[in-house]
Amino acid sequence: MPRATCAAFAPGESIDVNGAHSLVRTLLASGVDTCFANPGTSEMHFVAALDQIPGMRCVLGLQENVVTGMADGYWRLAGKPACTLLHCGPGLANGLGNLHNARRARSGIVNIVGDHATYHRAFDAPLTADTEGWARPVSAWVRTSARAADVGRDAAVAVQAARTAPGGIATLILPSDSSWDEGGEEAAPLPVPGPVAPDPGAVRQAARVLREGKRVLILLGGAALRERGQALAWRIAQATGASLLAEGSNARMTRGRGLPQLDRVPYVVNVAVERLSGFDHIVLVNAKAPVGFFAYPGKPSALYPPEAGVHVLSRFEGDAEAALAALADELGAPEAAIPDPGPRPEPARGAPTPEGLARTVAALMPEGAIVSDESVSYGRGFFPETYAAPRHDWLQLTGGAIGDGMPVATGAAIGSGGNRRVISLQADGSAMYSLQSLWTQAREKLPVTTVILSNRKYQILIGEYAGVGANPGPTAMNMLDLGNPDLDWVRLAGGMGVEAARAETLEALGDLLSQSMARPGPFLIELSV
């Protein structure tokens, strides 16, 4: 796999260390060795330092929302932060949608945002912006390095903030004179606190609720959705009669054979309210009590019964696996076998349906695949059809800002080391927000199979329109329909350097999936649905 590093300084060569050099060296010393970039003039000294100091893999994205989405996907698989390189306030603004999603995924990212030289800001040049103000809503930590001597130290703090459980976005703003001035100093890595240990009182409270024998839901999120967390939750559920669900949208969920057949909280309000109506108590494990994605006239915002007790076993920053292990011990829950989901599905046949697509993907995905799911409304029923698939990881859109599926798939392919097949299930409307991801996939020769669900409309919005009690007329449909002209994804992908083909049936889809997974690079399938 290509690794973009350039000529290093010769051994023993004497150089002047500027702020940019100290930044690169500090990032590398702190374990940040991947940079997703879309640089501009203000960042050229940082680009030069990346050229001169070996060790950083630099991946170009053709739009900043692709850059930030790739960094999100990278964290979800690598478990460590990458840095982004963004051009001034407007470049950061272009990446805010997927930084919002990354914040909801609790992904660790170090944003490096160039800015005007400190003395130039007073002249109010065209790119002058309130960069700190734009960064704060999506960042756990924001700082501007005003001097070259501060850059290394600030970078070390930024990495510490990004790596602090459960993961956060740190934004370091780098005026260009801080980058080019001499006097930079590499900073040593800072200690990173681990996840918060379980609260014994919370463990005892959860055990008391589960022992009462009332109807209890254990709602899993975050790290609780990895293999060990699910196995522990299954033990507890089997010992107490509790039910298990995952949050509606999850950053990473390990799924497939050998794991519980775990469904998630439904998206549609009426369906979710009905699904949760029978519970007297909800125990949260790195999760949030379920609420509706949107408000609707006459429908509740909270999806669970108002009289239900809500109990926090572990918060987002908590050690979910340790909390579940402590709860299992408190209950004396024995080991419990996880039922076999039955035979692996056969590829489906006939006209495309959501269920048929899910079965076909489950039938053909390789062991250890990664699914990046931005199927939106089409994919709400995918989970029950994929329980018997080989072991895989499922990544979802966590913040609702569409356009993250293909960037997350791209970053996940890099974060997993490039040796796991990524299957990107992608609605066509949201794909148009970040189709430049395909170019990066081609350049980096990444093993990504993209399935575009081509219905040529914003189907979810047609459903939402009905949800507020109306039927779309000609004016509304003109804003919800993607035809006239139709998007041609085969030609769009080809223009980005990715080979593509169109499928009208599930048989054709299966053939193309199999072919794509036998090849090393990216491939796109436009599935007419």
UniProtKB/TrEMBL annotation:
Region (Disordered): 334-354
Domain Thiamine pyrophosphate enzyme N-terminal TPP-binding: 18-122
EC numbers, comma separated: 2.2.1.6
Pfam families referenced in this protein's UniProt entry, alphabetically: TPP_enzyme_C, TPP_enzyme_N
Presence of keyword Transferase: yes
Domain spans labelled Thiamine pyrophosphate enzyme TPP-binding: 390-526
Superkingdom of origin: Bacteria
Assigned keywords, A-Z: Thiamine pyrophosphate, Transferase
EC class name: transferase
Gene Ontology terms describing biological process: small molecule metabolic process
One term of GO molecular function: flavin adenine dinucleotide binding
SUPFAM superfamilies linked to this entry: DHS-like NAD/FAD-binding domain, Thiamin diphosphate-binding fold (THDP-binding)
Family the entry assigns: Belongs to the TPP enzyme family.
NCBIfam families in alphabetical order: PRK07586.1 (NF005760)
Name of the protein this chain belongs to: Acetolactate synthase-1/2/3 large subunit
The organism of origin for this protein: Muricoccus pecuniae
